[in-house]
Amino acid sequence: MDNLNWVFSLYAVVLGLTLAEILTGFARSIRRRHNAALDGYKDVRLGLLTPLLAIWLMFDISSFWLVAWTLQDAMSVNPLTLAFGLLVSSFYYVAGSWIFPEGDAARTDLDNHYFRQKSFVFGLVLASNLLTYLGRSWLMGTFGIRGFGQYDYSMFVLYFLLQLAGILIRGRMANLAVLVCLLLLTIDFNLGLGIRIVNAIS
């Protein structure tokens, strides 16, 4: 077993449980909405905000795994590395567990639930991403990111600013715009679409 697999053996389970928690909440909410519609209730709505938050968080977790993959040669097995990874993955799990409501609160408009929980969820994910960046910088010995150009750094800073905006802003349309932008940026990071377009037209 190489260093990356050894380190991940402690907290990969936590990240897997995070994805399971989000997907379970998603499935239960869809089922409640379906059953409520069959029973003639109109107060149970999925909305857009909570589902988009859930989808973005799953993509953000996949980005974390991609970053970890690039660090496999620099990563060593020690208590600090294990504790750091456990802290980041725990933040993700708690954030994921707060996205969808449970119990009586589940029979509600999920957009209303989003506004009650969003600051906490965004705060934890922002903390996870900041810790990941700082941990990567510590391992690599530099705050710079190899292969990053002006476009990449601009999108990188924008990504953090959008998460901060998610904590602070109010209004349905403003939050919807933040979530859509975050989702597009995460997909761009995972697939590298944006930089390919920039290179093609430059």
Shape: globular
Q: Cα-atom Rg, whole angstroms?
A: 18 Å
Strand proportion: under 5%
Number of helices: 7
**Amount of helix:** over 70%
Q: Kindly report how far apart the N and C termini lie.
A: 43 Å
Average pLDDT figure: 81
Overall description:
With 202 residues, the protein is an all-alpha fold. It has a domain of 141 residues: Four Helix Bundle (Hemerythrin (Met), subunit A). The protein contains seven helices and no strands. Helix 4 crosses helix 5 and helix 5 runs antiparallel to helix 6. The longest helix is centred in the first third of the chain and has 36 residues. It is globular. It starts with a helix and ends with a helix. The C terminus is likely disordered.
Quick recap of the structure?
With 202 residues, the chain is mostly helical. The chain is built from 7 helices and no strands. It has a domain at 3-143: Up-down Bundle (Four Helix Bundle (Hemerythrin (Met), subunit A)), CATH 1.20.120.
Task: Give the helix/strand layout.
Blueprint: H1 3-38, H2 49-70, H3 79-97, H4 110-140, H5 150-168, H6 172-191, H7 193-201
Helix pairs in contact: 1-2, 1-3, 2-4, 2-6, 3-4, 4-5, 5-6
Supply the key terms.
globular, Four Helix Bundle (Hemerythrin (Met), subunit A), 202 residues, 0% strand, 7 helices, transmembrane, membrane, disordered C terminus, mainly alpha, transmembrane helix
